[in-house]
Each structure stands twice: as structure tokens, then as C-alpha cells.
Amino acid sequence: MLERLFRVLLRLSPSGFRDRFGDELILTARDVDAERPRRAARTVRALADALALPLSVRSDLRASRPGGGPVRGLAHDVRHARRVLAGAPWFSCTVIGVLALALTLATTVFAVVDGVLFKPLGLPGEDRLVSIAPGHEGLATRGFGETTSVADLAHWRAAAPEIAFTGLSAQPWGGYGAGINDSAAGGARVLSDFFDVIGVQPLIGGFTPADFEEPARFEPVVITWDVWQRRFGGAPAVLGHEVVLDRHRQAGYRIVGVMPRGFVVPSTRVDVQFLAPLVSTAAARADLRRRTVYEVVARLPEGLEVAAVETRLAAGLSAAAAAFPDRGAKPAEWSEAAWRRQGPFDRVTVMPLASRVGAESRPLFRAVFVAALLIVAIAAVNVSGLLAARMLDRGREIAIRRALGAGPFTLARLVGLESTLLVGGGLAVGLLLTPILLAIGQSLLPEGITYLKPPTIDLRVVLFGVTSGIVIAIAASVWPLVRALGGTPGGAPGAVRASMPAGALGRRLVIAIQVAGAFVLVTSGSLLVGSILSVYAHDRPINTRGVLVIESFVQGPGATMEKSPERAARVEQLIERLRTVPGAVRVAVTSAQVLRGGNWMSWFTPPEGAPTPRIDVDRQAVTAGYYDIIRPELVAGRLPTAAEQASGAPVVVVSESLARAYWPGGQAVGRTLTEYGGQDPYEVVGIVRDVRWFAWDRDVASIYGPYARLAREPMVSLLIQAEREPARVLAAALAALEQADPLVVPTRAVTLDQMFVDSVRPRRFQAWLFGSFATAGLVVCGAGVFGLLAMTAARRTREMGIRQALGSTPRGLVRLLVTQELVPVVLGLVAGGLLAAWTVQSLDAFLYGVTPGDARVWTASAAMLLATAGLGALVPAVRASRTDPVQALRAD
Amino acid sequence: MARPAPDTFLPLKSDVMLVLMALAARVLHGYGILRDVEARSGGRLVLQTGALYRTLRRLLDDGLIEECARPADAERDDERRRYYRPTVLGRAVLDAEVQRMSRLVRAARLTAEGKRPRLV
User: Fold this and answer.
1) Does the CA dihedral A550-A553-A555-A561 come out positive or negative?
2) Engineered SS bond to A147: which of A77, A291, A481, A829, CB 3.0-4.6 Å?
3) What pLDDT is attached to residue A174?
4) What residue in B sits closest to A21 (Cα-Cα)?
5) Nearest-CA residue of chain A relative to B32?
6) Exposed / middle / buried, residue A520 (Cβ in 10 Å: 0-12, 13-18, 19+)
């Protein structure tokens, strides 16, 4: 090891030394390596010795030399800088705090956006990989784009045999969840040549050709490295491991391979953790109408440019169109666009895969990253201002140093060291806080966002933080250095300045610009935080206190999308069993997966003449006891009686908005509804207030009916009213469920309150993110105003002295300084207001309960900024007003 | 050019002293010096490779040691090895350092006996 290290380090050493001693030194290092026993302390000494080689190849013969060398001088300066900073704890803490805040935010944001914005996919020759999306001329692309058939790909291959095509179908809900509350495991089914085309093979195992021919009871699955480590502890015996998902059929998936570490499935739609074969029969593979491939990836040969691919595929598209089965005439009820979309493709769009993957997240991530950089930039300017202000405070010390012969280099080193120590402190605190902020952020991150790399603190993130710190240290040194080198030997201005000293214009411009930037951040943050608060403040006219929800999938008898007496009977037995759980006061079931976006169709035919027959309806088939747990707020009529509930009588309860949509004028109670395709009437017995069963921020109409008569889904949500200790009751209920009916598999178990909160997760994330930016903007801006005004005040020490000597009171001086400094703040607010008015328009789609022009938000934002800037201005102003006039006049 | 006085090199750094002492006994190459120091100190004194060559360069530059031919008993050594021996100046410097240290030791002894001898 030592020999290799010396070989490298010798290259960095002066050529004279290398030519003279290089060969022999390597021989000696080899001998030392071979013969000396390796001990930790000895190795450390040897490494230090080797690393010192390129730094110095000259050695002193004398044991000591008066005065010491440059390193000793540097160490002395570092000690001096440390003492200086320790002597001004508030100043040091402010600077370190501002830097830590900005760097924590920027580093955390980088950890999240790195995968999508910066890190290459890591696939071999990825510049030759493209994403191909078929479409129809003149028709806009919908959602993620059109789905392709395996037969289409065959035609494309025939037209362009030099291009290697493959495909995958990725879904966010791959069904590979590892149990309760862990269902978000994206999966992709891939074609057999997938690994060959993308150029990465599984690290261990893999699919066999037979896996793509026949569906298996245990689907073969290749997992990512992360899943292997997280769920299976990196166990080598993972191959062959079977996971049962359907206990009744004894079916699930079997792990047949593991992808290499860091591998990212190049899906443009979702984060994929599981890969399975896209199985298709020979007949299906020849059918152009069987569109099962969501995304097409191709590897281009050298020399074929992306722009030329569309031309190369033209013949393939024509051949596929010619072979497309005859569809006859367009049915009258079909729109032209829908009919064409069902037909053959007539165009393709080709994009480099690297830019396509993660494209959904990229705009948001880019905006967030720019905002973070903006805060870092403002922080750098402000820290520079704070340091410059301090340099002016230390004018006398600087003057003495210069008088004693300190040159520009010495002063620059002094300033640079102080900046570096402060930035180093800020960086250290920032890096310590980043994992905490990231952990909070991760708990709030919405599902369904593509990251391409797990948000974590890795070497790239640390390097980003350190680089940002170095850039800030350099940027922050400029201003104070100019001050230190440019000041007169007296340290203070040589003459009494007018009320607008030279250079003040620049400082005020900086204040105005950063106030404007902060105002944009604060307004945006306030609107989004206001939105989530408005959601939380929205009334839920039901009982959620102590209500637990266990979402379960019913397997075995009755596991159909039809009405099922068998399932209804099993559900009744389950309820009976769960009632015996200690602490469970009431138990009921609804067929709805509440707060999951819901179902959009009623079971019933809208009544004749309904003014709004097509509205979104949350339908809930509920068992006896449901109304006692949920306790919906009755508006008219009554709730079903206990006897009606027990017998499953054909009565329904509707919510206000459904009543209004079907029977305006309050005439709903007593009316009847008829099921689609049925004859039996269901009487509306009551009207209750609307409950946001889709999501806490989305209005929806509801209809509640008897479970045994209406439920069609093999999913149930068990509702349990817990008397006390919900967590314990939930655990006991899950155990009882497992014991009573193992074929009812729970997928989610939380409190109803938590479900409401989780239903607005993306909104909460936005509020958290932009709220953080707003807070950081406020703090950084306040510190900046403080620093800049402190600098102004220091420069005007003599003027303050004269004003006091001429009779100005301290209060008058404070008023003068604060008023003058608030002018750029107000100008910044005006400029920022104009900018923010334009920016917040883009937030309109994300707002709830507030509008982009909400006067409360704007007033509060402006007031917060004014107060922060005012506070920043007040402290140095008060300090300046307390200056002793005699001392001030002697400042020269 | 006049030869510098041996005293101008004093006091010697311990590494320099050890190298000169090793070479005063016999002609050695770099690794030989390391082994000699280590062997004669029972492993308690260990020279680092990089530091050794920095010292050798300085000693060569200052004319305290010089390169010399391969000794007869080292014919099987690697051809890339270089061999060093002290120059007249080098021996004089070593001698002066030994005398300085002897005076220092003697002074220390006298001090321990309660006397106040001159230190240099």
C-alpha cells in the first residue's frame, strides 16, 4: 500500500527530487511495506509521512530555527481568528446560524433532487438509450402517453433492425407490499430483452425464457438492491424466497434475482423496486390491439441520431397500420379522437431516456432547488455584509496592523481565515442538522414522486454541502476584504458624511433586492401554509375521536367484484369477533376505502329530471353500528333504525349535496332510488351533512346503504370505536382478525384522524417546503438588514457624534437611522410585491381556502418582513445612538 | 568557495544525527539506513521513508554526505539502489554535534550535583 501511495505522490513532487530519489524511494517503501509489521499507529505515521512528500521535499538539518515556518504562522493566525470570533459571540452565532440555516436547507433539498436533476442514470452507454412514445398526428398526448403492443414493437424491429427495442409496464401499486401500511412498492413488468437492451444484468439470478411464456402462481420477481437490503437484510438465500399475497389461492411472488446496487429502473412513471416478466401468449404477441407495453426503450447504434429515429420508424408504423385488424365504421357515440386512439399509431416521439426519466418531477425539483440556491446566495451576501460591518467596527485594529506593516496579503489572510472559520462552523452545524431535516422531510414527502435515488446523505450530498460552504466562504470574504484594504488608516470615514454616505446606495440596493426576494418566498410560503391550515380548519361533521380503521382485502369465498352473501356472512362473523377485543366499544364495516380518492359512481340510477345527474358520489355500504361510530350530522329525516340496520332494510341516507343534485328544494326524504340494472326501490330516509370521504380538501356527495344488499367490492374498512389506548386496541384487533379469518388480509391500519391528515399529504409537503423557504428567507433577510445597517451605523459614527453634540437625542437618532434604512425595505416590498403577484399566479392550482390575492396573506407577509427588517435595523441603530459623542469625534 | 563551519549546522535534528551516525559506520543505501537505525535502537527508533529521503536530499545538497560506489558485499543488491557515505564536512559536523552533546551532558551532570556550569 505504502509503495503504491508513494508512486502516486511522487508524481506530485518536484521533478528534480523525483528523478534523483524516486526509484530508490519506491524500493525502500516496498521493503518497508514487506518487513515492518502493520500496526494502526505505525500505519497512520507512515501515511502522514507519505502525504507530506509533495508538500515539502526539503528538510532542515537544524533542530530548531528562530521564528518558525509558514505553517507555524498560519496556526498562529488561526488561533488569533478563533480568539477574535470567540470575543464576539453574538456576531459569530448570528453568522453561523444564518449559514447553517441556508446550508441545511440547500443540502437537504439537494439530497432530494440530486437523483432527478444531476445524477446520471448509471446505465452503460445511456446517451444511446431513448424513450419512444407512439401517438396520433394532431391528437394531444394524454397522461403518461399511449400504451404500445408487443406486435407494434415487432413491426418497428423489422423496419429498423439496427435499433434494439424493449418495453416495460410500470405501476405505482405493484402489489408487492410487505404488509400493513406498506403498499407503495412500484413494480414493472418487462419484456424478455429488457436487461440486454438497457445493458445491466441482475447481480444474482434472473428470469428464464419460460418465465415470459406462462403466468405462474408465484410470479418470478427480480428485486432492487435496496429492497434486498431493507426487507431481506441482504441475505444470500433470498433467491427462491416466496411471498404469499393471496392466502386462499396460495399465490404471490417468488424472488428470482437481485439487481446491482444503485441500479435505477428507467421508468418515466414511477419508482420501481420490483421487476417481473411481461407474460404474453404467442397469439397476444401478434395482436396489435393488445396494448400491454406502457413504455418503450430503445438502444440506438452508434451514428444514428435521435432525430433520425422517427424517420427510421416510419415504415414500421405504416406496416403496423396496414396489418391492423379492420374495425368497421366508427360507432356514433364514440368521439373522433377516442376512435382514432383505439386505432393504429401514425407517429412516434423520441426523446433521450435520461431526460425523460424523472421528467414529471423535474420542474418542481428545479424550482425548489433554485429557491434553495437563492437563499444560499442571499445568505452569502448577508454574511459578507455582516463581516464587512465588523471590519468597520474593527477599523482601529486594522489601522494599527497596517501601521505595523501588515500588507494586503496578511490582511486578506486574516479576513479569509475568519470567514473560513465562520463558514466552517455554519457548514458543520448545517451538515449535522441536514439528516434531521431530511428525516422530517421524508415523513412528509408525498407518494408517487420519482426520485431516482433514495433521498439520503451520501458522499455527493456532503460534497455539495462542502462546495457550497467553500463558495460562500470565498464570496463572503470579498466585501470585508475590500473594507479592510480600502479604509483609511483611521478606520472610520475621514469626514462627516451627508445623510446619504457614499456607498450607501449599493448597500440599500442589496437590502431592497433581498427584501424583494424574501417577500416572494414569504408570500408563496404563507399562501401554501394558509391553504393547509384552511384544510385543517374545515369542519368534519362526524365523529373521528377514537375511531380506528383497518382496511382489508377479502380473499377466498366472496372475493369477487359482485354482491356476495358469503362475503357478507364472513364480515358479520368478523364484526362479532372484533367486538370481543378489549377496549373496542363498537365495530362496523363499510365497503368504501375511505380517504383514498374514492369511487365516482353511485350504485343507483339518478332520478328522472335530476338537475345534476352526473356528480361524483362516495358510496358506502355499511353494516349495523356504522352510524353509531361515525355519528353523521343529520340535516333532515332520520338515520336507519336499529331494526332496519340489522335486517339490511332497503333504506339509504344521502348527503346534502347529493340531495341538492337529485332533488333540489329539500324534497329528498321519502323519495326512492333504484339500483342500476335492478328494480327494487331504496327509500331515502335521511339527509346528512357532506363528509369529505375522498380527501380532506375535496368536496364530494355521499350515499350510505345496507352492506348486505349493496356491497360489491372484496375490500372492507373495519371501523372500531376504541374506548382508550387506540394503539393497543388496534394491535389486539389485528391479532383477532388474523385469528378469526386469516383470509381477510389487512393492508392499512390507522386512526381515522390520521387518514384525514394523510389524504392531504402532497398539500402538507408543499406547505412544509415553502414554509421552510419563507422562514429561512425571513431569518436570512433580517440578519442581512442587521449586518448592512450595522455597517452603515459604524461608518456614520462620527456623524452620530456631531448630531449628538448638536443636541440630537438618542431616540431621535434611532428614529433617523431606522427610518432611513426602512426606505429600501419598503422599496423592496413594492418590487417584491410586483414580482410575487406574478409568481403566485402559478400557485393558484395548489391553493385551498385562500386566493393568490388574499389580503390577509399579503398583509401578514409584508408585516412579517417589515417587523423582521425593523428588528434588524433597530439593534444597530440603538447601539449607534449610545455612542459617546466625544469618543465618536475622536474616531479619526 | 569556503567550506562552511561545522558549528553552523548545529544543533542537528535527531533524524539527521541518526543518518550521519549510520553512515559513519559503513556505506549504506536508503533502506539500509532505516534498518540500521531500527536494529541498533532495538526497534525503538523508526525513521519514516519520506522523511529519510528529504533528509538525504538536504545532506547531499549541503555537502554533508555524498553518493559512492556499490560496496563489494552488495553486489546482489538491486541496481537502482544508491549508496551514501559522509563527506569530510559531514564527519566534522557529526563530530561537532557529539562534542556539543557531550558538553551538554557534562553540564547536566554538574547541575545535578548542585553546581552551575556554563551550558555552551
Assistant:
1) positive
2) A291
3) 63
4) B53
5) A28
6) buried
**Secondary structure element (H or E) that encloses residue A262, with its range:** none
CB contact under 8 A, A24 and B16: no
Write the residue in B13, B50, B57 that is nearest to A50 by C-beta: B50
Cell numbers that stand for A210 in this block? 419460460
φ/ψ of A408, rounded to 5, equals -60, -35
A717 vs A596 pLDDT, higher one: A717
Judge whether A506 and A388 are in contact, CB under 8 Å: no
pLDDT higher than threshold 90 for residue A870 = no
Sign of CA dihedral A255, A260, A262, A263: negative
Query: Among candidates A603, A743, A745, which has minimal Cα distance to A676?
Result: A603
Q: Is the pLDDT of residue A653 over 90?
A: yes
pTM beyond 0.95: the answer is: no
CA dist A369 and A112 (Å) reads 9
Q: What is the pLDDT of residue A491?
A: 38
- A85-97 exposure pattern, b = at least 16 Cβ within 10 A, e = fewer: beeeeebbebbbb
> Hey, which residues 33-62 in chain A have their CB within 8 Å of chain B?
36, 42, 45-46, 49-50, 52-53, 56-62
pLDDT digits 0-9 by tens, A276-329: 999 988 888 889 999 999 999 999 999 888 888 988 899 999 999 999 998 888
Q: How far is B65 from chain A (nearest CA, A)?
A: 12
**Which residues, including other chains, have CB under 8 Å from residue A817's CB and lie 6 or more apart?**
A789, A792, A793, A873, A876, A877, A880, A881
Q: How many CB atoms sit inside 10 A of residue A811's CB?
A: 10
**Range with the poorest average pLDDT among A11-15, A748-752, B69-73:** A11-15
Place of cell 551516525: B21
**Pairing outcome for strands A274-277 and A187-190:** parallel
Contact A187, A272 (CB under 8 A): yes
Total CB pairs under 8 A between chain A and B: 89
Please state, in angstroms and as integers, the Cα–Cα distance from residue A854 to each residue in A385, A788, A851, A861, following that order: 34, 32, 5, 11
What is the tens place of the pLDDT at every residue in A58-100?
666 776 544 444 445 666 777 777 877 777 777 788 888 888 9
CB atoms B80 and A6 under 8 Å: no
> A192: pLDDT confidence band, cut at 50, 70 and 90?
very high
Residue pair A577/A740 in contact (Cβ under 8 Å)? The answer is yes
Kindly give the residue spans of alpha helices, DSSP state H, lying in A541-654: 565-578, 626-630, 642-647
Q: Best of B54, B65, B82 to disrupt the A interface by mutation (most A CBs within 10 Å)?
A: B54
pLDDT band at A615 (very low <50, low <70, confident <90, very high): confident
Grid cell locating A539: 369542519
Residue A222 has pLDDT above 90, yes or no: yes
Question: A647 or A889: whose pLDDT is higher?
Answer: A647
Query: Does A5 touch chain B if contact means CB atoms closer than 8 Å?
Result: no
Q: Which three cell numbers stand for residue A238?
A: 433470498
Say yes or no to pLDDT of A494 above 50: no
Chain B residues in contact with A49 by the CB 8 A cut-off are 48-51
Q: How far is B26 from chain A (nearest CA, A)?
A: 18
Please state, in angstroms and as integers, the Cα–Cα distance from residue A849 to each residue in A536, A698, A770, A860, following that order: 10, 11, 17, 16
Query: How far, in Å, are A209, A214, A347, A361, A873 from residue A277 at the CA level?
Result: 9, 10, 27, 27, 66
Identify the residue among A33, A39, A43, A61 best suited for mutation to test binding to B, counting B beta carbons within 10 A and taking the highest.
A61
Q: Which amino acid is at A889?
A: L
Cα separation, A96 vs A499, whole angstroms? 32
CA separation, residue A194 to residues A56, A197, A633, A730 (Å): 55, 5, 55, 44
Type of residue found at B40? R
Please indicate whether residue B29 or residue A119 has the higher confidence score (pLDDT).
B29
